[in-house]
UniProtKB/TrEMBL annotation:
GO MF, one example: ferric iron binding
This protein's name: Intradiol ring-cleavage dioxygenase
Organism (species): Apodospora peruviana
Lineage top rank: taxon: Eukaryota
Signal peptide, first to last residue: 1-20
Segments forming domain Intradiol ring-cleavage dioxygenases: 122-222
Length: 365
C-alpha cells in the first residue's frame, strides 16, 4: 500500500497510515478499494443493454478486429483467454481461425471500475508526452492495447479524456524513477528515461490505443500495468500532461498461465527481483488478449483489450513521485519524506478541493 494522507482514509483504516514497503501485503489497499466500490456500481454489467442499443458493442468488435488485421495478425490461430473467472486461469483451449466470426473473438466485455484514490501504485511520474507509441528502445513482447472509457453513471463513452498508462520493462524497471526496488538505484540517468509511459486522448467512442511491451515483474505486486484518467486534463504547449486532479487509477493484470509462458522467454527470465503471483482481486481486472502472428509465438506480441469505468462525480488529487521536466527527471522528495525508503517517493493522495464530497465511511470494511 502507499502512504495515504487523507483523513478519510486514516479513519477508514481506523489507524494512522503506515509506511509500506515491497513485500508488505496489500490488504489495506484492497480494503479501501472494496469500500469505494461498495458505494457504487463496481462493474459495467448494467451497461450491456445500452451498449447494444447504441451500437457501441458492434463498433467495438469491428474496431478490435480491424486493429488486429492492421497489426499483421493473420487472425489464424488467435489464442484467446476464456472463462471470465477471477479465481482460475483464463487460458483458452480454443484456437480461432481466419473464418472465425469476429463477434466470437472480440465480444469480451471484461471491465473494471477505477477508483479515485487507492489502487495507484508507486512511480507515477508527472509530465509525460501525449503519444501512442511508447516503447522507445525497450525490447520485449509487443503489447497493443485497446482501452475504452465508460461513465458508470450513464453508460456512455467518455470522449476527450486523457488516459495515462505506465508499466515496467521486461526486467521489471520503471523509467523516470529511482528506488532500491527499481532496477539499479545508482543509475540516476533512469530519472531522465521515459520508456513505457504515455498519455492519450479518448476518441468519440471513448477509445485509446497504446503500443507498449508486456511488463516484467517487480517486488510485492503481481505483473501489472497502471492506468489513470485525467478527466479535465489540458495538455501543455509542449504536448505533455501535468493534470493531477480528477484522477482515477487502477491496475490491470494478466493470467498467471500467460505470465509464466512469457517469463520463459530469454529477456524476461533475466529478471532477478522477487516475484509475486496473481493477487486476490475483487473484480475482473484481467486484460483480454489474443496472440498475433500466424502461429502461437509470443515474440510476435499480442493485442489486448479492456473497458474502464469511472464515476466522474468524485474528484480527487494525486501527488507524483517524480516530475519529467525539460531538463530531465526530478524526484519530488517533498512527498511526505518517503525518500528514506523510496528515493523517488510514493505518490500520496488527498481529496481534491471542490468537486463532490468524498464517499462516507461505512461499517464492515
Ligand atoms: C530495463 O530498464 C533498465 C533501466 O533503463 C535497464 O537497465 C534494463 O536493461 C532494462 N531491461 C531490458 C530488458 O532492456
Ligand atoms: C492465480 O494463481 C493460482 C495459484 O498459482 C492459480 O491456481 C490460478 O489459476 C491463478 N489465477 C489466474 C487468474 O491466473
Ligand atoms: C513541458 O512544459 C512544461 C510547462 O511549460 C515544462 O515545465 C516542462 O519542463 C516541459 N517538458 C519538456 C519535456 O519539455
Ligand atoms: C477537481 O477539482 C479541482 C480543484 O478544485 C478543479 O481544478 C478541477 O477542475 C476539478 N475536476 C473535475 C473533473 O471536476
Amino acid at each position: 500500500m502507499h502512504i495515504i494522507t487523507s483523513v478519510l482514509v486514516a479513519a477508514l483504516l481506523g489507524q494512522a497510515p503506515v509506511l509500506a514497503h515491497p513485500g508488505e501485503d496489500l490488504r489495506h489497499e484492497a480494503n479501501l478499494r472494496r469500500h469505494y466500490l461498495s458505494l457504487q456500481a463496481n462493474n459495467l454489467d448494467h451497461c450491456a443493454e445500452a451498449f447494444e442499443a447504441e451500437g457501441l458493442h458492434r463498433r467495438t468488435i469491428n474496431r478490435r478486429a480491424t486493429r488486429v488485421a492492421e497489426l499483421g495478425g493473420s487472425l489464424d490461430n488467435l489464442y484467446r483467454r476464456q472463462a471470465p473467472k477471477i479465481t482460475s486461469s483464463h487460458k483458452g483451449s480454443q484456437g480461432y481461425k481466419l473464418d472465425t466470426d469476429p463477434k466470437v473473438v472480440f465480444a469480451g466485455n471484461n471491465n473494471c471500475v477505477l477508483t479515485p484514490e487507492v489502487t495507484e501504485g508507486p512511480f507515477f511520474v508527472q509530465g509525460q508526452d501525449i503519444r501512442g507509441t511508447i516503447v522507445e528502445k525497450e525490447i520485449g513482447v509487443p503489447l497493443h492495447l485497446d482501452f475504452q472509457l465508460i461513465d458508470v453513471t450513464t453508460c456512455k463513452p467518455l470522449k476527450d479524456v486523457y488516459i495515462e498508462l505506465w508499466n515496467v520493462n521486461a526486467t521489471g524497471v520503471y523509467s523516470g524513477a529511482i528506488s532500491p526496488v527499481n532496477g539499479i538505484a545508482s543509475d540516476t540517468s533512469n530519472l531522465d528515461r521515459t520508456f513505457l509511459r504515455s498519455v492519450q486522448k479518448t476518441d468519440a467512442n471513448g477509445v485509446v490505443q497504446f503500443s507498449t511491451n508486456f511488463p516484467g515483474y517487480y517486488a510485492s505486486r503481481a505483473t501489472h500495468m497502471h492506468v489513470m484518467t485525467h478527466l479535465n486534463g489540458v495538455p501543455k504547449a509542449n504536448n505533455t500532461m501535468w493534470d493531477l486532479s480528477a484522477t482515477y487509477a487502477g491496475q490491470l493484470f494478466f493470467d498467471q498461465d500467460f505470465i509464466n509462458a512469457i517469463e520463459k522467454l530469454d529477456l524476461y527470465s533475466k529478471n532477478r527481483q522477487s516475484k509475486t503471483k496473481n493477487e486476490t482481486l475483487t473484480a475482473d481486472s484481467y486484460v483480454e488478449y489474443v496472440t498475433l502472428g500466424d502461429k502461437v509465438d509470443l515474440n510476435n506480441g499480442l493485442f489486448g483489450w479492456y473497458r474502464l469505468g469511472v464515476n466522474p462525480t468524485y474528484n480527487w488529487t494525486i501527488m507524483a513521485a517524480a516530475q519529467r521536466l525539460k531538463e530531465g527527471g526530478k524526484i519530488k522528495t517533498g512527498n511526505l519524506g518517503a525518500g528514506v525508503l523510496f528515493l523517488g517517493g510514493f505518490p500520496t493522495y488527498a481529496p481534491g478541493a471542490g468537486g463532490a464530497p468524498a464517499p462516507k465511511p461505512t461499517k464492515g470494511l
